[in-house]
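fyi for ur records
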Amino acid sequence: MDPIPMLDVFILTFNAGKNQINVPVFARHLYNAFSQNASTLPELVIISLQEMAPLAQAFIGSYVLNPYFQRYESAVNLAAAKFAAEEERQHRPKDRPYTLVITRNVGMTGIMLFARKPAAVRNLKAAEVGFGAGEMANKGAVGLRMFYEKENACGDSREAELTFVSTHLAAMEWNLEKRNKNWESIVSGLVFEDPKQFTKRQHRQPTDQTSRDSGEAQGFLEQDPTQKALHDISIYKPGSHLFVAGDLNYRLSKTSPTSDSTFPDTDPESPNHFAHFLARDQLTTEKAAGRTLHGLSEAPIDFPPTYKLVLSPKEEPETELGRIGDEETDLDEVDWSWALHRWPGWCDRVLFLDIPWWVQDIITDKKIKVITYDAIPPVRSSDHRPVFLRLEVPMLEPTSLLPTTAAYETELNIERRQLVDPRVKLPFPIDFQSWEHRAHVKKWEYTIGWSMLVSQSRQAIVVFVTVLLFGLTTWWLRSR
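which gave:
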């Protein structure tokens, strides 16, 4: 068998609190993250953003969001250039080690893809779904899917398919069921092609999930073309690696803390050390029960809860360099404490779909290898800590990941009493109206965004009223 190369991937998720980042400070934190348990730069960097900008700018999108994306681009390349220079790797360009391949957003949730070898990325697709108020994208998910090509030790080219999802689920302690419902919306509606093209064929197929008897299993074994096509446009495409990052908002309780509640401690010697609170983590419980993030794995958590932080104020310098993003120094140690009206929680997470058992039975020495899973120190612009996962992904061809006949028989065995692998059977049916519905809602978001932006500026209001009066006058004159 040809040697299978590994792809070095770095995924960071950050709820930015609708603020722009301090580029030098964020770059310093990224540099430290790149250096953790590694001596080389990752080949791919994916940044998942939530509340990346104020709602008005986020709903408008396009060039209005560019200043927010550009700061992360600057931070990534500043960190990477510093890393490369200090390690004296002269064979890499020091000024811009990464190319920003693509940015996408759905409302306030964004995703950025950086590659050191952008030519290795091909067939890039994007998808989005909103599930906020009125199904608009104040909460939502945006995804990227691509092929990545890399040579193995023998010089032979191998290609793997990768799917990245950035998401922001429902907030507040009591919204546990809504968070699970948001995940259902992602599985059903975050699709990389318009599912309506399969409607006619689907009408000839049963759509309910009332049984898992031998007849259903046989249907899957026969690989019905419609079901296979729908599976392939979902996030759980069997031949693709899947990574999900975001502010998932799962908490420690469904109720708010009281005045006498005990909060996690960062002191390892304390009986209230944060590690003891992991047993109360909603995501772990809900995932084990098969109600959310089906089939996804997570590295062990060795960092404190990432939300909700109260940051101590910083003494402002006398110059204008005190504005966020404009300090001359990249060192900024932030004193913080827990907000007392919210339970601290591991809201910010990065999960992945591990190599399926039917592949590990054949290729025993190739699994996804976690290099680091950690939180970046707090930054002054947000009450969340950024979280990053660095891992090595085996470059397995999509066909080698497909479920085997034995996999279908095992996974769909009604006596197995275990959760079915989502690469064999989707946990929720695909929403055939997802693309059409999203396009309709997006028009409203654009209109609302501009309305909000205009209403926030006196000058903009004057311009808007002037243009409106001019238009009405022109219409009146022409109608005479």
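Confidence is low (pLDDT under 50) at residues 205-219, 318-328. thats all i got for now
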